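testing teh design pipeline on a random one, pls ignore if ur not involved
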């Protein structure tokens, strides 16, 4: 794959990630015009519009004067009549376009999927979709519609148009442009026959790059990582949704009372493993040079009943150029730091000692 192709794909990916993560106010006239045209394409009159400040509000709001059909339950979004019809419309388009692309170039489609489509899918799953699912698991059956609203497939065919000689028909271009317009102009939209509920974008979103091809996830060390105008939002630590205290006011006492092991880990990481060990007064059991990471030390501490924590140094350099210290919980019966390190890899102390270098 040439450097020019990778550079062009990266530019398309960055543009569409910008749409996914946009905090600009919705362009309501553009969004409504695009939705009205999509309604026309499936043989329906334009709906009336009901705008809400967040996707959660969109899922939970029944517009005034509207009585939903029994099939249009919020926890069965993929079974709503109109999302199914719109999905059928775009799935048919995708089938025809994929056939055209494969006839022209069998290497183009996999390359665009790898460099453009999948990173945007991964980013969507690690930002808004993860938040919605963690807030209300009942909404996960709406996955097919969430997927349709994700700008990944619009980005995919936009890349095809820019990076190949595949010729799209006017109707294909028109339909692609309608969905692209929605991705550029508003948040989620939930269509019914008479009314369409449309969400504004977030007013604040904070992310970090975590993948090899530009994927992002929610992260903010000093406030909510995602926030909407109605106050709904979440705190996140390196992609994990956490209670606000983990970011705003982590403490040894709260960590000890927390039942969720992932939340505890995030809170400790925010404090820093070294500081947490000092504040919590954990007893050092033993220390030893790390044979899997020359120049670094393994330190084993008592944590709680039948549990110990191994403090180690990451074998690879982080994006900021530093090596991260991290803690791993191990069984309380382990008294040798090298044996504890080996246990985390499913190895004996002797096997771990023979590692050239871990990462």
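output:
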């Amino acid at each position: 794959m040439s450097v020019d192709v990778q550079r062009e794909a990266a530019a398309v990916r960055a543009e569409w990630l910008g749409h996914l993560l946009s905090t600009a106010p919705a362009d309501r006239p553009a969004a409504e015009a695009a939705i009205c045209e999509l309604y026309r394409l499936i043989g329906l009159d334009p709906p009336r519009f009901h705008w809400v400040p967040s996707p959660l509000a969109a899922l939970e709001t029944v517009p005034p004067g509207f009585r939903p059909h029994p099939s249009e339950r919020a926890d069965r979004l993929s079974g709503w009549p109109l999302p199914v019809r719109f999905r059928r419309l775009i799935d048919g388009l995708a089938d025809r376009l994929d056939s055209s692309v494969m006839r022209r170039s069998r290497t183009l489609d996999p390359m665009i999927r790898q460099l453009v489509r999948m990173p945007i899918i991964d980013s969507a799953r690690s930002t808004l979709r993860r938040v919605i699912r963690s807030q209300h698991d009942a909404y996960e059956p709406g996955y097919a519609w969430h997927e349709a609203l994700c700008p990944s497939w619009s980005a995919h065919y936009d890349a095809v148009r820019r990076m190949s000689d595949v010729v799209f028909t006017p109707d294909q271009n028109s339909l692609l442009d309608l969905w692209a317009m929605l991705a550029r102009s508003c948040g989620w939209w939930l269509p019914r026959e008479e009314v369409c509920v449309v969400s504004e974008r977030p007013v604040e979103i904070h992310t970090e790059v975590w993948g090899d091809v530009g994927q992002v996830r929610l992260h903010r060390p000093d406030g909510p990582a995602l926030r909407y105008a109605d106050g709904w939002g979440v705190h996140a630590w390196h992609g994990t949704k956490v209670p606000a205290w983990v970011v705003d006011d982590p403490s040894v006492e709260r960590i000890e009372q927390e039942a969720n092991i992932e939340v505890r880990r995030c809170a400790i990481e925010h404090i820093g493993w070294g500081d947490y060990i000092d504040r919590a007064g954990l007893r050092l059991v033993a220390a030893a040079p790390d044979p899997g990471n020359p120049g670094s030390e393994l330190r084993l501490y008592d944590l709680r009943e039948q549990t110990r924590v191994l403090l180690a140094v990451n074998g690879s350099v982080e994006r900021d150029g530093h090596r991260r210290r991290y803690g791993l919980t191990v069984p309380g019966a382990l008294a040798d730091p090298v044996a504890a390190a080996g246990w985390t890899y499913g190895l004996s102390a002797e096997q771990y000692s023979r590692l050239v270098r871990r990462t």
